[in-house]
Predict the structure of Renalase, FAD dependent amine oxidase.
Amino acid sequence: MARVLIVGAGLTGSLCAALLRRETARPLHLTVWDKAGDSGGRMITASSPHNSQCTVDLGAQYITCTSHHAKKHQSFYDELLAHGVLKPLTSPIEGMVMKDGECNFVAPQGVSSIIKHYLKESGADICFRQCVTQINLRNDKWEVSKETGSPEQFDIVVLTMPVPQILQLQGDITNSSGTKLLMPFLTLFFPISGYILWLQISYHQFAP
Ligand SMILES: Cc1cc2nc3c(=O)[nH]c(=O)nc-3n(C[C@H](O)[C@H](O)[C@H](O)COP(=O)(O)OP(=O)(O)OC[C@H]3O[C@@H](n4cnc5c(N)ncnc54)[C@H](O)[C@@H]3O)c2cc1C
């Protein structure tokens, strides 16, 4: 079974994990590592230490669906609405500029519930406080080192953190000849794109 590591438990990493699970016929062992103590990345929801019902979204606070994305991603919105993860935003927001064909959604359990939904669906092993520092090729596997603990080996590594943080990584990853594919990845909701750097040893292990 191919071992796949996704680095980053933000929107890009969580959705990537869910789509890999959904779209891949072959059995995969999926693992997600994040250096933070919880999932969400720039869509994190913080809770009051005194009352867990009292939460605040520290990054993105509502989701704007443009007419372009509505067509392309309708099934994703339908799924999140059906699970109660998203609800239409009906209250006015001061200063909000609405364009024709756009609609807005909020996440009643906090915006990080979108990420938690996809991580749950992926069935991946999620490990927090795992800060990746180095990626090297060892015996046809990617050996991934972190700040604490022993390095681990994977067949495929998907990096979903912001590009400046990817560029800080050490090891063979800095040698572009080891990189099979670098592709821009449009995150589900936002016109601002995240980037996925995808490292894989043998595509046939992964292809359906
Ligand atoms: C205040 C704020 C408001 C925003 N509002 C909007 C908005 O209205 N509309 C819009 O389009 N966008 C908005 N955004 C941007 C949106 O939140 C991001 O585009 C989106 O969340 C990015 O998701 P991501 O998964 O690509 O990256 P991230 O959320 O950054 O996830 C990357 C993850 O990688 C982890 N990581 C990084 N380095 C390592 C490492 N070495 N090892 C392990 N893990 C690592 C990080 O901890 C993080 O969890 C906003 C952002 C902020 C901060």
Q: What stands out?
A: The two ends are 12 Å apart (CA to CA). The pocket of flavin-adenine dinucleotide is lined by residues 7-13, 33-36, 41-43, 59-60, 130-132, 160-162, 165, 187, 190, 192, 194 (CB under 6 Å). The CA atoms of residues 55 and 192 lie 25 Å apart.
